[in-house]
Design goal:
By secondary structure, the chain is α+β, with helices and mostly antiparallel strands. It contains 2 helices and 11 strands. The chain has helices at 25-30, 47-68; strands at 4-6, 33-35, 41-43, 111-117, 124-127, 131-140, 150-153, 168-170, 179-187, 193-202, 216-223.
Length: 225
């Protein structure tokens, strides 16, 4: 897992008029009365109604798509654009995360750089029902001391078929320019598969420090040994 997070490592994430068939230009423009084949007046419905119907339909569709991947409070369930955790398998390891929307760090001048997976690099094969220690090495590459920082697990509800960890992994206080090893114990499930767990760095108040950066993760393949 390779990433750089912080103010120096932000990456970007990612009205035309329509004609209405069967209506003359006058009918489209005015919505004025027109004479029918028997000499009776008939009112032409303005094209604005058709346009509004199309627009409303598009808005309803957009709201439906957005809400499908959101929690009741409006926060995205999949904020980084990563694949659905339920759909992952060992064949898809390593998982390639996409960039979240660009955003400045919480504290001006704060920055972090991923250095290495000290233990359990991506796609390491481990036995089911085992407990081991994961260690990441990061560098405080900014000007803000890290005091009271931690890594918060994103998928807090831990199912039986997922790797189990604590929800908040503490980070030793780290001064600008220093490196720090962050460690947490992992207990693998008894069912084989791919464990893909993501964390975001938060400060002492529990606020995400680098909202515009990819999560830190571990991904290991659990198998029956």
């Amino acid at each position: 897992m390779h990433l750089a997070i912080g103010s120096q490592a932000l990456r970007s994430a990612d009205e035309t008029s329509a004609s209405v068939p069967g209506l003359s230009p006058d009918e489209i423009a005015g919505g004025v009365p027109a004479r029918g084949s028997r000499g009776r007046l008939r009112f032409i419905r303005p094209a604005a109604f058709a346009t509004a119907a199309v627009t409303i339909g598009a808005v309803v569709l957009l709201v439906t798509v957005v809400n499908r991947d959101s929690t009741p409070d409006g926060h995205s369930l999949n904020p980084t654009g990563s694949p659905s955790i339920a759909a992952l398998s060992p064949a898809g390891c390593p998982v390639r995360s996409t960039n979240p929307p660009p955003a400045l760090p919480l504290h001006e001048g704060d920055a972090a750089v991923f250095i290495a997976d000290v233990t359990l690099p991506d796609c390491t094969r481990v036995g089911a029902g085992k407990t081991m220690t994961k260690v990441w090495r990061l560098k405080n590459a900014g000007t803000v001391p890290w005091k009271g920082y931690s890594l918060r697990r994103l998928d807090v509800t831990q199912r039986a078929d997922q790797c189990q960890t604590i929800s908040d992994v503490p980070i030793n206080d780290t001064q600008p320019g220093e490196m720090v090893d962050i460690r947490t114990d992992i207990t693998t499930p008894r069912k084989p598969g791919l464990c893909y767990v993501r964390f975001k760095m938060v400060d002492a108040s529990g606020t995400v420090v680098f909202p515009g950066s990819r999560p830190i993760n571990f991904q290991i393949i659990v198998e029956e040994l």
